[in-house]
Amino acid sequence: MNYYISDTHFCHKNIMRYDSRPWNDVVEMELDMIDWWNAKVSDNDDIYIIGDFCWGDANDWKRILPKLKGRKHLILGNHDAKALREDVSSLFAEKPTHYKEIKDGEYKIVMSHYPMISYHNDTDANTLMFYGHVHGTLEFDAVMESVKTMKECCRAVALDYRGRLYNCWCGLYGWTPATLMEILTNKYSHGSKKI
């Protein structure tokens, strides 16, 4: 089974206020998120972390990653590079990258930490763009408004743009990794209703 998650921000004290997270301190957040992750994910699952995994240093990464079940793949976010030494990179199933494409059932999944309005195969209804970075902020609203505008402009000149962008911010999925179906059916992940 494939799972997707972004912006876990382990070890990031200020993220609790920024995201209105339901914890009082980072240790409590870390313990709950690890427990909830492991209650959902098995060691045979692939987890695609779409950036901003941990705010801490390399030792924090090496302490947290082995506690999490699954084969972990990292799509780099803006906060990840500072701790990504070789000994940390080796904890992932493959070399971390800024962009990744995979198949998940009938869908092609394009992943980047940053939302991309135009992405590879954006004319194919079965190609989906999974991203993070914007959490549940006004930037998320702006991404969804941009997608709507892009579709309208393309229709006006008979271009076939079918952009389907989905926010994989962990706050949309109970602070745990989400399956493809959980993402597709989450009414907030694609901006159909304000968070």
Q: What is the total domain count? A: 1
Q: What is the radius of gyration computed over CA atoms, rounded to a whole number of angstroms?
A: 17 Å
The number of E-state strands comes to 7
CATH topology: Purple Acid Phosphatase, chain A, domain 2
- The gross shape turns out to be globular
Characterize the largest beta sheet: strand count, sense, and whether it forms a barrel.
4 strands, mixed
Helix content range: 25-40%
One letter per element, helices H and strands E, the order comes to EHHEHEHEEEHEH
On the 0 to 100 scale, the average pLDDT is 92
Cα distance spanning the termini: 27 Å
Q: How are the strands of the biggest sheet laid out side by side?
A: 4-5-6-7
The structural class is alpha/beta
Features:
single chain; 195 residues; alpha/beta; three-stranded parallel β-sheet; globular
Secondary structure elements and their pairing?
Elements: E1 2-5, H1 15-18, H2 26-40, E2 46-49, H3 58-64, E3 71-74, H4 86-89, E4 99-104, E5 107-112, E6 127-131, H5 138-156, E7 165-167, H6 180-185
Parallel strand pairs: 1-2, 2-3, 5-6, 6-7
Antiparallel strand pairs: 4-5
Description of the structure:
The chain is of the alpha/beta class. Helix content is 28%, strand content 16%. The protein has helices spanning 15-18, 26-40, 58-64, 86-89, 138-156, 180-185; strands at residues 2-5, 46-49, 71-74, 99-104, 107-112, 127-131, 165-167. Strands 4-5-6-7 form a four-stranded mixed beta sheet. Strands 1-2-3 form a three-stranded parallel beta sheet, with no helix packed on it. It is globular.
